[in-house]
Protein 1
Amino acid sequence: MSISVSIIGGSGYAGGELLRLLLAHPHVMVKQVASRSHMGEYVYQVHPNLRKCAQMKFVDPAQIESVDVLFLALPHGQAQTKIHEYAALAGKIIDLSADFRLRDGSLYEQWYGEAHAAPEWLDKFVYGLPELHRDEIAIADYVSGVGCNATASNLALLPLVKADLLDCTADVTIEIKVGSSEAGAEGNLGSHHAERANVIRTFSAFGHRHTAEVIQEMRLKNVSLTMTAVDVVRGVLATAHAKVKPGVSTKDLWKAYRAVANENPFIRVVKEQRGVYRAPEPKILVGSNYADLGFELDESSSHVVSICAIDNLMKGAAGSAVQCLNLMMGWQETTALEFMGLHPL
Amino acid sequence: MSISVSIIGGSGYAGGELLRLLLAHPHVMVKQVASRSHMGEYVYQVHPNLRKCAQMKFVDPAQIESVDVLFLALPHGQAQTKIHEYAALAGKIIDLSADFRLRDGSLYEQWYGEAHAAPEWLDKFVYGLPELHRDEIAIADYVSGVGCNATASNLALLPLVKADLLDCTADVTIEIKVGSSEAGAEGNLGSHHAERANVIRTFSAFGHRHTAEVIQEMRLKNVSLTMTAVDVVRGVLATAHAKVKPGVSTKDLWKAYRAVANENPFIRVVKEQRGVYRAPEPKILVGSNYADLGFELDESSSHVVSICAIDNLMKGAAGSAVQCLNLMMGWQETTALEFMGLHPL
Amino acid sequence: MSISVSIIGGSGYAGGELLRLLLAHPHVMVKQVASRSHMGEYVYQVHPNLRKCAQMKFVDPAQIESVDVLFLALPHGQAQTKIHEYAALAGKIIDLSADFRLRDGSLYEQWYGEAHAAPEWLDKFVYGLPELHRDEIAIADYVSGVGCNATASNLALLPLVKADLLDCTADVTIEIKVGSSEAGAEGNLGSHHAERANVIRTFSAFGHRHTAEVIQEMRLKNVSLTMTAVDVVRGVLATAHAKVKPGVSTKDLWKAYRAVANENPFIRVVKEQRGVYRAPEPKILVGSNYADLGFELDESSSHVVSICAIDNLMKGAAGSAVQCLNLMMGWQETTALEFMGLHPL
Amino acid sequence: MSISVSIIGGSGYAGGELLRLLLAHPHVMVKQVASRSHMGEYVYQVHPNLRKCAQMKFVDPAQIESVDVLFLALPHGQAQTKIHEYAALAGKIIDLSADFRLRDGSLYEQWYGEAHAAPEWLDKFVYGLPELHRDEIAIADYVSGVGCNATASNLALLPLVKADLLDCTADVTIEIKVGSSEAGAEGNLGSHHAERANVIRTFSAFGHRHTAEVIQEMRLKNVSLTMTAVDVVRGVLATAHAKVKPGVSTKDLWKAYRAVANENPFIRVVKEQRGVYRAPEPKILVGSNYADLGFELDESSSHVVSICAIDNLMKGAAGSAVQCLNLMMGWQETTALEFMGLHPL
């Protein structure tokens, strides 16, 4: 049994990864890929890895036909203005943009600086992180994507929140390091290689929009994200600094982290005493859908450092979207996401 | 139908990639992985990408049991001293080292500086590059691996040699740029990140051992390889400078290159007039088994520049080895090698 | 007027930078450079940038003769065992190692895990960061070096501490990102380029030894350093998360940071509203002795993010050492440290 | 004694480096720096390394006043249209662009695809590479800049040509690897970090414009440049493949290379049997004006590989320009160019 899918916004980085995953998906037939800026071009001219793998050309978004599942990978702000049209094309929609991640229109307005264009749709979408909403996604027709930094943050906090180990009166300070692909396929002066190579560039101390997704999903208030760009193309490392409740021990944390790893096929705990790779790091996750979690606790101060590493374009975007598709269709959750990552890279 | 395989020398980079590919191979059951330096350790402690994918530990090479196919990924020089023992363990052997790549013991001695320890075995092996020896590999019991630089060089020259376009009286000068994984998993001062990052380091102007494989397989005499290390982990780009016969045109070259691409599932021709990726480059091949070919001809001087890009650990090592396995077993040649590569990376 | 200096431990990275700076110093004559592991070799064989600039060879440390100022750039733990001998060779000593940075033997033991070998010397040394101890250094005979991560941390906190703006009851969490040169010239498996490239690797969540220098110099208790290695060779970025006292405003911070910049020739405040380089980043500081400071304040929560960028081998090691020399000798503080850094890099 | 200089085109990479060098020059007073695109901005907003070193703002090019020496660092094609105006402002002009590098208007037209706008000025300029034209530069009023790739190529060939060792009937094939700063400060999609990082990208097999400067200066005909971009910001490595005359030995080459190094303060010969840095490489030349030369000869085939490494913005642009200024003014040739480069980087 096979379904038909199309992608609107296929020329961006997340759209390209989505296309790659769907082309290799055993139960999916990719019908059309649309891109306004590249329509008429072969998809492999934009995503050169797909040469000999995909012969299709980008079509005009206006020419997208009815399909079983429609993926939207548009720049933020565009999906919300046409969501009625898109819903007419497919019974199920997975939108990778930020447009339908927040359930509360006022939260959206607070972080995105303008009113949402289709607030009545916010409730119809489920937040598309299976580790948080697996059962809801399985029965949903409309699923949002996830912010890559929000995903690394939410997964770093998940074991602590789920096991109720966090001292919620204390601040949660999340330091996030990111690669250049996070900023999207459109270059600017700051992304010019000569300016962007060799950087350790803190570009946002407070106020990154993905914070809203952490507030919503972790139900935390005193949370801040500090963003630093480093010299990799792919990868997010979130290092969350928080306080655990008095008396919480390293043993308690092991239990909490292992529980999350056991329940989720793409979560691994990395906490080694020897070797090179002792803690989570995105280097070995490039191309994979895994999220690696680790932690250290200073028992004397209850200061916990919880770490999550992901590939921003996979677990932080296209990978989670395909994982949601699998759940929505009742397929094996890991289908088309089995790539193990590369060592070395 | 499934076969059993084992790997001796599984802790190196090529061995690790081989293991990753074989773990995902639908017709293969990995029985044992041996490593003298890491025996007793979990394979994921050395190859951290395999965490949650492989629970096995490295065993002592002396404990390898009988299997259908035995892979050898030992440092050069070791397989030849024990080939009789290994042959007793498996009916089919694929050896990734340099030990059985050359057919002529004297050529081996010339380039490796010492007599071969098992010269009577040289004739039993087939050179393991399917694009050159597909039919022989299909009926072989013993298949060698390929040198990564030799592979990039041989594939760059293949269309020219096969279509008999080359002026064989002229020198063939091959400039090769390589990443740090080519030097293997054992570090040295020159591979220390602070010394190896940001390099454009010509470490061998003449005399690289892989030259012997080009001489043998392309039947060329005046060929030299110049090796330059650059700041990537994976990837080989071979740029061959040669002369075509008088009157050979760009159109003739197009025909020759397309023919090779049509006959080989992992060969692609890249020669675009626009966009970012106009010629072959290893960046988009990381993790994939493709070899991308391109060329430019100065018709006025008959100077041809032929370019081949590969991932040295895939098409240049483990990928070609698995491709050979598929041929030897009569399976689809591309099985377990479908990964398309990543964009961007 | 010119003085004679020698360096013991000149083959490491800090020693090499020190040599480079001293060779160009208008008032200094470099007499000898010692290295046990490289004695007999030309210094340019280890530090290839010095070819044609320095014709000297490394000598045996035992052959060091009397000089005006002796620099020690040995691995940690060695200077303290021979400090009596070294003091007999020179009236003034600048020791770049960690051996004499802490004033309190018990603090040393706590962080370095063993008793100090010459505790009676701890009081004789001044901590060698001019921004903290300019006047004491000017009259000192014995000056210690500084930890590079400690320097970035101390300078990030200096404006806040000096202006008494910090809420000292709250934790100070310092996230530090570092390049590969920080680990020294001796490679290991983790520093192998193929393993070290492309990393975002949190290698220490708590307990980094440089913490002791922050505790001592800033007189803070609740301070922790979390260390993450990223893919650059040189550079440290320290991002300190702290709380300011109630009512402290962005305007107050501007005043405090500008005051520190005005008093110190190598401190700059970087806080731009436009352009690529809006906050401190080590990319543009490679080779320079500047420390760039920046900050952001969330007035609603009093959460301040204070950032300091340095070149770990310059301001974090050899540069500060030469700056101390200048002060000790009564020369212009910036002598031989005028290099402005490179753009782009 | 001090002279006044101004720069038109100071916001590009070469212009920025020029400004940095001139600010530190003991005999120079920088009067004005002009940039059409950035006029009104502080120079440190574009070149952030100059913060606290230069308080000046970019002025409108039309507001440049009379000075002793005028530097032009404009995009190619602009200087030739206004050279009369510029000549009215200063008695001496150093133009870094390609506009006045070629002596022959028809050679210009052949390689640049259009007629030169001021062909009568071509003869007034001296080609600004001191290693080729030291004496002429010393008495010139108008000096051109140099192409960075041409400089690496010309210096790689210089010892061979000067000692008349080259077999001029054979092709000279020059393989050049370059960093991202060579393409200038204006980004494009291909220079976007996510697309440009990790590349080994052969972007020009034949026909690079700098070839014309090699043809002119080396008086060679059969010369081709093949350009490959690699993942560094600064640096050019030119690897020239040529034939020496029959009987020429390694000893002859040593003599020729040493002679060039002895005559030129910024030329060094690098040819070591041990250590990490055995041949020229740009990594250690960043920020320095040195050009490192090396070679290997296959005596059996007379195939010589001659290598030159430079920093494209220094010896390949701003450094050579300042070196020319020193010669034109009768100052020490190395003034303001003493920076030794960094190890490691």
Protein 2
Amino acid sequence: MDISIIEIKKIVESALSEDIGSGDITTAFVVPDNLMANGIIVAEEDIVLSGIGVAEEVFRALDSDVAFEALANDGDSVKTGSNIARLHGNARTLLTGERVALNFLQRLSGIATLSRKFKVAVNGFPVRIVDTRKTTPGLRTLEKYAVRAGGCWNHRFGLFDGILIKENHIALTGGIAVAISSVKARVPHTIKIEIEVSNLEEVREAVQAGADIILLDNMDIQMMKEAVSIIRGHKDKNLLIEASGGMTLDRVKEVASTGVDIISAGALIHSAVWANISMDINKIKE
Amino acid sequence: MDISIIEIKKIVESALSEDIGSGDITTAFVVPDNLMANGIIVAEEDIVLSGIGVAEEVFRALDSDVAFEALANDGDSVKTGSNIARLHGNARTLLTGERVALNFLQRLSGIATLSRKFKVAVNGFPVRIVDTRKTTPGLRTLEKYAVRAGGCWNHRFGLFDGILIKENHIALTGGIAVAISSVKARVPHTIKIEIEVSNLEEVREAVQAGADIILLDNMDIQMMKEAVSIIRGHKDKNLLIEASGGMTLDRVKEVASTGVDIISAGALIHSAVWANISMDINKIKE
Amino acid sequence: MDISIIEIKKIVESALSEDIGSGDITTAFVVPDNLMANGIIVAEEDIVLSGIGVAEEVFRALDSDVAFEALANDGDSVKTGSNIARLHGNARTLLTGERVALNFLQRLSGIATLSRKFKVAVNGFPVRIVDTRKTTPGLRTLEKYAVRAGGCWNHRFGLFDGILIKENHIALTGGIAVAISSVKARVPHTIKIEIEVSNLEEVREAVQAGADIILLDNMDIQMMKEAVSIIRGHKDKNLLIEASGGMTLDRVKEVASTGVDIISAGALIHSAVWANISMDINKIKE
Amino acid sequence: MDISIIEIKKIVESALSEDIGSGDITTAFVVPDNLMANGIIVAEEDIVLSGIGVAEEVFRALDSDVAFEALANDGDSVKTGSNIARLHGNARTLLTGERVALNFLQRLSGIATLSRKFKVAVNGFPVRIVDTRKTTPGLRTLEKYAVRAGGCWNHRFGLFDGILIKENHIALTGGIAVAISSVKARVPHTIKIEIEVSNLEEVREAVQAGADIILLDNMDIQMMKEAVSIIRGHKDKNLLIEASGGMTLDRVKEVASTGVDIISAGALIHSAVWANISMDINKIKE
Amino acid sequence: MDISIIEIKKIVESALSEDIGSGDITTAFVVPDNLMANGIIVAEEDIVLSGIGVAEEVFRALDSDVAFEALANDGDSVKTGSNIARLHGNARTLLTGERVALNFLQRLSGIATLSRKFKVAVNGFPVRIVDTRKTTPGLRTLEKYAVRAGGCWNHRFGLFDGILIKENHIALTGGIAVAISSVKARVPHTIKIEIEVSNLEEVREAVQAGADIILLDNMDIQMMKEAVSIIRGHKDKNLLIEASGGMTLDRVKEVASTGVDIISAGALIHSAVWANISMDINKIKE
Amino acid sequence: MDISIIEIKKIVESALSEDIGSGDITTAFVVPDNLMANGIIVAEEDIVLSGIGVAEEVFRALDSDVAFEALANDGDSVKTGSNIARLHGNARTLLTGERVALNFLQRLSGIATLSRKFKVAVNGFPVRIVDTRKTTPGLRTLEKYAVRAGGCWNHRFGLFDGILIKENHIALTGGIAVAISSVKARVPHTIKIEIEVSNLEEVREAVQAGADIILLDNMDIQMMKEAVSIIRGHKDKNLLIEASGGMTLDRVKEVASTGVDIISAGALIHSAVWANISMDINKIKE
């Protein structure tokens, strides 16, 4: 994974604490302490996998002796019935970690699977589908990782690492030109300036004011096309054009056809349902 | 809310840290420090509301001087276009808190809205729809709260506060009778013993062994009916009957008609998509 | 141990931070860095052991290379002078970890030893002695574990995983029947409903209202007997009867003789004094 | 209180999380949200009070609107039946905070009450009774505070803020003189050097080597007297003499009579049982 | 301040815990509990102020009743002997918070003061002096804030919010072109791509490969000039030019004269010594 | 190191989180996952080394498989160009950990190097140079460790482990005698009592009142000499004399010549600039 192991360990430990609390009483009362078992994680439907390393870390956090063999990689298309991972270790550990491991895998693979559909929908167009800040509180790092596993891209992570001047910001200050010049005076030189616009006049104003990225928010297809045409007229500025607002799977191809560079879709994350993945745990035959 | 304020504050603070990091640079660079503003949170579709108190806590954590007036309560059906809350306070605070507040509201109201649909689907039947442990890691307390706001009920919270002997447990030990008697010997007397069964023989065994709750897992309707009939034959045991396994909105009414007491549906949470809710922030007219 | 390794690690690390702070200056200034030593943990009086796994974790958290061999298990009766564990490792680690390891062992074994006495006191009666929520703040998981090591049982863990309607609750609402029906409407189906009563009228009311467990609080022996007789008259309801209030070692046998199913005694934990356990550390003979 | 409010808040919040978890379900299901109540905390036996400020902080952490009026101060002798504090506030808050507040008060007052007995036992002698590092993991700050409330004194807090060269340290290095001179070369000048000795030869060696405090460990009364006599012979060195080892309430007066300056007794904390304190919560009469 | 209040509170609380631990024993033993006092914070040399809001938060965290009046703002030049802030409140609180408040103020004002000197040194040149990731572990948010207070700018915050392909990265892969194209394929569109080069050939390669920012590392003045000339030859690419490597106060003017856009100087932070600031606390005259 | 491994791990993990956040995107996008590399840490100027064990822990926290071989010890004088440590491991890990490891090494070695200069400046005098509480918030444990590595000593760690009655304390109470006797009545017997004085009258008063350490604050050399003479006149009291106030490298020798025992100098830490240390990372030749 290309995400920090320090962060993964924190998220995994916190998820385990949430589920296990003081202890897994069913397992403790039913299963002998020293019993060994095999486990197998299986795709119950066609999915794009994401979170296999997180699942491994779940069992590792409980017991460093568990053997975990991934049989597919994040980003792989996995067919119904295919095995995703094989485990071997203390039976109690496998039982106690099962649900948390699956919760990560199912949530993340759900996002990756939907992201892949978005990506496929715009195949052939020079466009990126990116996520937004509409993510489940506490899980943004992983959810954005799953978007990448699905083949899409990330927008900024949060309020601290990107500039996006939105309608509300503009309304509260003296307009587009003032907002952009205020930002230019202070923003680190490593970050591009993006501004949200909703009509063609604002598009022109944003181009003049020196934005790096123009976000066409909630425009209809026709207006998007005109906006693209206006912006492309300023070739020397190398501007990026992003479109947002209700970007569903049905719509993205048409939007891509307008010539925008980026389509941002909260739906990648907020409309993803869980992928169906299960785990079987078996006593080792003697 | 009927959940601990200590927990809510922790979850909210952690969500704010995730999104804001070292600071909201767009707002800091664009909006004057002392500007006041009004905000309004609006339902963009018909929803069942959940999380209004969490949203309030988001703004309160940033600035105790923000005025937040809820215009609807958790559990209320809110129509498209209705106002959910009115805010007044420092413009920067409203802008910085907006997304996190909405992320909670949209995720939780999404769950509440779907839960309400499940509840309505079994109207008239003496049955409870309950959730499962299939929840987003880190957000279980709030997601289970949203299920209640939708009018459904909760199953156990985690591995520590309930006994559910699953197929995997039984497979790893000496069978249903042994498992139940092991648990009986050790479980706190305040907790009921639930066991998962998948055929009628197991049903009979579980009843004999003294389970309190029989979970009919992945049975077809016919088998469920027979299982109910067998279990109801032991009136003096006051057993509860729960059904689980692929409980979609389409199926629950038919399952309810089998006479089970409880239907557990992971879908309440894992198949909920976000409710569409937005926030407008306006300068105060002078 | 049947408690979560995640929780144990947190408690142990926090205890080590409390005692060691920035560093064990005596040891650092006196003992060479690379000296190896043997340690032996010894019972200085007859005890029931509890916490051996926690003690091991204390040394492991400081230095994963320490060898720790337990010579007795939690729950074992250990005689004066018997060895409990043998250690081998860096001399500084043994010296630095000694007090924290003993603090856990002495506190937990103190509880296990007293719990065993309670258990023995009611030998032959079909009754459980259980603990209460009267535990040392921050140490409940381990203290309740020690109660089990002593051979007694646990009541609910906290306010979140059990229903106990107490006198104060009833006084603040409309009485027993209302309180129980309010709870029934909302409590997860996995949790039994317990209610505290202090006279026979309340006993009858609680039975009628459908409680699962009747807690006879601060009744004298005669009243307890009558209460038991009333409740056992409702055989079909399978009610559990618990007695509480000043349950000292002297009294529990007489209380057990009334026929109650459970005796809850805060004394298991709040009146336990530390078991006398010591540790010797010796240079390795060359 | 003379302890850091930052630490108290952390301990209190952690204790509340432990007990309440996701929520106090009994109270939430039974007691209306907006009900107000009065509470009264009462001594059920003669105690020395400790922890009243912690109890206040418990309720304050749940709800800043609770009124908490202390009717006695830490260190006060409180008679059976006396009121310790009066509360007024939301009924749910009083019910939810009750047990945690009492757990602190009962544990700390138990220690203060026992400490007071030790202090009284040596009345008239120019001696201090001090505690040790035998404290409940996680609660040392508060337990040492309770010792002071009882009228005794504290030894060092942990391994970081005092030098105590114990038998084990000496055994692992080249003897008393070497150990003391190693420490002298490195210890901050603000900290005295204490060394544990168990016979008169070691006493003389420790005096020669330049210790500031001589700890007479597990000596009988006669040997203590001789040790005191030897040490007092070096008037110019201003040495402090401490005695330790099985210091029970029965023995301390005789030990004090030997002329030692300090008696360290783990029993102040590890042999204290909880003080009996209760809380009543009543609906407000209209 | 334009940084997150959530982060400031965490840093302040952690600093107070570090200094106060279980309690400020000198103050607790010497100063009466209810004494009120005035405090005044004074510049003992000419400084540029930074951290006044953090200092206020220090006292606020200890006691919300302290009155803190700032007499200067972050970024102000403050002359020797000038008052920076006036305080009024409980004497113990002022004494206990003094050192931590000053530690923040002195460290941050030291950085702001040095940053101002760098800024002044390049007055008249169209260049930004920016900081680096050479910051004190744990204090980056505040140290970068102090740089801004001094009138300079920030580079990226950490490894997560900016792309800087350094010599080590290039050495480990297939060269500049490959590295840049790998990044382009995956980096969020909101982030510019910066690459470090050390000779003119690399400059040309970086320009060709499509970098957004060229970092001239450890070049002499002559080579910098040639590099600038090469890069400015590609006007349509709008490239930014940054210079780094041993950027001391003595050198920056000459570097600025080469025409680079940005000079990054670790010295702003790692070579700043503390500003001299003190606090007086006085009894209130009756 | 003589500091707690528990604390080091916490500080290191927190520093890594600060720098890496969700992930090191440059490295992830540029460097293959399975590439191995060698690293070498080099002194770029003459330094006294401190923090080598912390640097090792940085890489260990990211990846337990990294081999880290220290080539010098803390406290060693290391010449320009000398190698400090050799590393071997995953190339991504070396790149990601580099800056944090160097930040610790450079800050701590900067302090050790300056401390060494102070120590050398008073060579031949029976005096200790000690640090103060003027330390970077959050880093006190390590900064005080670096002072020791440089050959100087530590004063108290914080407000909890030493008594220092300062001018402000005295001003707020009834004077020196009262302050000292209040402290004597309550302070643990393991801690010496230090008091700050600023003229000869106060010196006499402090001696009379029974202080253990007299801190001569901001006196000129002549007054210091007289103060020393007065205090040494009371030989039987074994008093320590400390001098403080603007103790720069230029002045300490003259101050040492007055005969004081201790010179406390905030400058050891607050005026230390970073040592110049770098790290090279190379592909392994095949």
